Amino acid sequence: MSSPPSKRPARTHTRVRRDLELEAGTSAHYEDPAYYTKTYRSRLDDVRFYADYASERGGPVLEYGCGNGRITLPIARLGLDVTGVDLSSEMLADLRARLREEPADVRARVRTKRGDMRTVRLDRRFPLVFCPFNAFLHLYTRVDVERFLARVREHLAPRGELVFDVSIPEPEELARDPGRAYATPRFNYPTPDGKGMPVRYTERFDYDKLRQILFVAMEFSPVAGGDAWMTPLAHRQFYPRELEALLHYNGFEILDAWGDFDRSPPTRDSITLVLRARARRR
Known about the structure:
Blueprint: H1 20-27, H2 33-39, H3 45-57, E1 61-64, H4 72-77, E2 82-86, H5 89-99, H6 104-109, E3 110-114, E4 126-131, H7 142-155, E5 156-167, H8 171-174, E6 182-189, E7 197-208, E8 213-222, E9 229-236, H9 240-249, E10 252-258, E11 272-279
Parallel strand pairs: 1-2, 1-4, 2-3, 4-5
Antiparallel strand pairs: 5-11, 6-7, 7-8, 8-9, 10-11
């Protein structure tokens, strides 16, 4: 007597739950390249650091989170090839516009790829991989970090190096009252006509201590009246020893740890951590 045919288990589809707050906090700050450029135009220490290090080490360079070329272009102007990866189509479009104003030899040295740094595959290897200006802080979970570091390993040439910087968590900032708006001086928000629009600017900070994510709400109110708007930003907070463990258990060794872009050692007063790492030999 034959046994009844076994029933094949029903196929189930696991739907990944989208976190719209995190998605907005990852992308919104980069949707207006003109504002981004104005905001960070005086931030030059990291630009000099990455350009100098690339010049010393030699290219080509892979840059994750290249944005609109704040670091990409100075490296290319030194005669080094740079491949920039970024998720923001707006920032990459602005980078391409900036490239059109560069000499032909600089334009030829820059390649761009829109995509997620956890998944993008370029089928080539680089002696230097950069992830500057807190781009690493958009890796919100352990799995995000693991996927990113796996892509880095795939793209590193033998003895190649990963160099990146992050803000060190500041307890006072994480403890701020999320209900309080912290005011800063008024400024001219860039507009397409080039005249700018005077705005009042405030920030709110809301720290999720379970996920170690700091949510920043950047609030803009036109001085002359009109609709106000808010731009969210979400940054994962990584502590130095946590980063050391994540790198170690994903097959990397830290070669240098600096407390600023002048390559000075970290101290208890450092607000930035710059790490230089290499994949361990298997």
